[in-house]
Amino acid sequence: MPKRKRKLDLTTADLVLLSLLSERPMHGYEANLELERREIRDWAGISRPQVYYSLDKLQRLGFLRTKSNNEPAAGPERNVLTATTDGREALADALEREDWTRQRERPPFLTWIALSWLARPGVFKKQIQRRTRFLESELAREREVLRSVLQEVGHPYHEAVWMLKLTLEHFKTELAWLKKLEQELPRRAPAQNC
Description:
Layout (H helix, E strand, L loop, with lengths): L2 H6 L3 H12 L2 E2 H10 L10 H13 L3 E4 L12 E4 L1 H11 L12 H8 L7 H31 L5 H26 L10
Helix pairs in contact: 2-4, 2-5, 7-8
């Protein structure tokens, strides 16, 4: 398989791990802990098994290599891994792809709204209230994460800060929209021209 084709087959998990192991060498177990500390599941859907699968895949592709290290591992994994030059190049190539900027999210709540006309009476309002409570809770949690990240990175001009600020803006926008929607609920009616 040509090298160029292999680079295009990298998953989100692969790219996140290449990025992490470009920062500094780590054991697989330590990489998993660091991804959990960075709350990976909030911004990239990567499971613990995917991490180990990706580490193995990236090693086979020559994008990671084992680095000698005499320090004890933080868990059962003993190999310290680091990104190779080819790995960093593959990551840089992947980050130049146009598809990063041309995709739309498909949030489950949006799907629920589309199907909600079939819900039982009273469910729509109840779900709007549940969503509001959830977003308020997430907004508070993300504000706390932002404070922690700002303390860690020491300035507001960092990718993690920008990501969190965008997430906060999404939550605030949806909360304002839900408030308006709740005011419009008494006027809810079936489609007239179907």
